[in-house]
Amino acid sequence: MKKYIVLIIAVLILLFCVSSMTYEQQTIVPTLQETLENQPFYNLLSKIEVTYWGQTISVETRGYYYFVEFLVRKGLHFSGYGFISILFYLMYRKIKLRFAVIFAVVTTFVVASLDEFRQSFVEGRTGIFDDVILDTSGAITFLIIFKIFSFIYRKIKRTTLRAHRTSDQRM
Question: Is 67 buried (19+), middle (13-18) or exposed (0-12) by CB count in 10 A?
Answer without folding.
Answer: buried
